[in-house]
Amino acid sequence: TMSFRVEVMQEAADSPYAAATDLAELLVERGTPFRDAHALVGGLVRDSLERRVPLAELVEAHPDLGADGAALLEPGRAVARRTTPGGAGPDAVAVQLERFAVRLDADAERLG
Known about the structure:
mainly alpha
């Protein structure tokens, strides 16, 4: 009885705000302590929402993020970067879907 609104899911996945964690991780990779990176990115997101300025514009203009940070905001990029088993990335989801398909087939056969 479950249904999915794929368009809404796609829109959420493609939102630049979905990449906030990726922006913080980029800053951490460059030596910024996580709590500072979290605060900085949170400030950019808040500023973007309050002033209605595209997040990509603020990220690209920030000296610690620039073009590398803006590239992380491209549609689908945040989701594609999720590679942890059981995570939300395409490869991890494909593994889960296959596992569930096998389970459903086994259950259907058992109930059969």
